[in-house]
Description:
- The chain is α+β, with helices and mostly antiparallel strands.
- It has helices at 38-48, 77-81, 96-107, 146-149, 229-237, 243-247, 250-254; strands at residues 19-23, 26-31, 55-56, 61-66, 71-76, 129-132, 137-139, 157-166, 172-182, 186-197, 201-212, 217-228, 259-267.
- Strands 3-8-9-10-11-12-13-7 form an eight-stranded antiparallel sheet. A five-stranded antiparallel sheet has the order 1-2-4-5-6.
- The radius of gyration is 19 Å and the shape is globular.
Amino acid sequence: MNGKPNMNTPFPSPADAGNTITHRGYKITTRKLPILKAEPIEHMTSKLGITPPEMIFGDNSASIEHAASGWSINFNAYDALDRVDKTGGSMLQVAHSKAWQSTREKKHESITEVVKPFDWSYTTDYKGTFHSDSHKFEPSSSPIPLELLKQPDPILFFDEIVLYEDEMADNGITMLSCKIRVMPARLLLLCRFFMRLDNVLFRIRDTRIYVEFSTGQVIREYAAREEGYEAVRLKLASTREDVLAQMRDPNRVAELLPIIDKSLEQLAGKHG
């Protein structure tokens, strides 16, 4: 990009068509592009009003679209970061926060905005960016049918993307990523926020989108999990596993964290 960034440019930018499969009337698209450069980061910072994570893959995205019924859902870094608490009210009040802020002031010296208080763990309850003129998600009691997902169905399409990542001033990791797999009869998308703040806390926020092609059923499940660092370490220490290695595995950690918040929704009406 030449000159100043266009402040009206959307996130993610339409720079690349990505990888796409269309199956049973559903179009699934993922995009994996390089980390954002300085100008797009400055643009995003200005729009968000918070200092960005160390690594922002602002052009990455995962989306599901059903053209016949006019709805789509997209997962991208900008909208996820826009859900981060910007008041500082839920900021982790630990000694590491000052060290983190110091690294940010050095890293982004070209950004003249004062670093305002906000949740420096970049915790987000992002459930995707949904678009539809006539459909909406409503509370439901129908869970995602795990038994169907356990069947040995062939995988028609699989991809995994990272939306953002930060090493929290070398005190852990915070990361938002998406995985999607498409099978002949259904698909599942998982958008996962994972945080490990060493000696303090583990945090996971999962959003799952499930689509059953034959019925058009669309389920959105959100679950927030959280547990103290030491409690997780003790649980792993009672096994014969490599504790430090397991602490870096979001799938393993998720098994150990209690649910603190959960919601279940379904797209109203038939959409297949």
